Amino acid sequence: MARLARDRGLVLCTQDVAETDRIVTILTEKRGKLRILVKRARRIDSHAGAILDVLNYAEVIFYERRELPLLREASLLHIFRELKEDLQRLEAAMRAAAIVARLLPDRQSYPEVLALLLDYLRALEGGLPPTVGELSFELKLLGRLGLGPFLDGCIECGGKKGLTWSPERGGLLCTACGGKGEEVSPQIWKALRGLRNLPLSAGSRVRLPERVLTKAQELVERFIAWHLGR
Predict the structure, then answer these.
(1) Which residue of 44, 137, 182, 201 lies most exposed, with the fewest beta carbons within 10 A?
(2) What's domain 3-81's architecture?
């Protein structure tokens, strides 16, 4: 007999299946990333389908089964309404949820990642600039997963000259130690290090030139893409 379980978490993404059903991926407090089957979720009158929308924080009661857990009941805890009314901030939040969904394995508890993601959504609602916030969130996420790039100089020798970007080696790598490609200026890698170390809430006070933000985002995206493609 299937056992009933209860948990709460943030909806990361959804996938339509069959005619009216949906698989909802939730980052939960106790079970980590959990995929739950929600029957008839796509029907207009579906209460659970509306509650378990992306970026909603909800409590779920479900049947534990050998196949996908089956939802019994869902209760909405927080909807992040103000965030969803701002397109730029909503897009940043959606990208964050998608990255978390792809980087985390199923059913491994990551309460620190859930806390970070919720803090990020609250910070966006509170006025955190999406561009700076996104960089800060991604660097902190990588760090909490033990994947963070080395940003204190060359990962091999500790030198601070001739630094290049090497995702496969773990971050900054100087040319003398085998680093190749475009050199990363001190302004850029120090900006990355600062955003990694500063609290998310401090991001609203960070002022960086557009070219620095653009390049820093490019480097972090390359780093994440490498980890996703391994």
Answers:
(1) 44
(2) Beta Barrel (2.40)
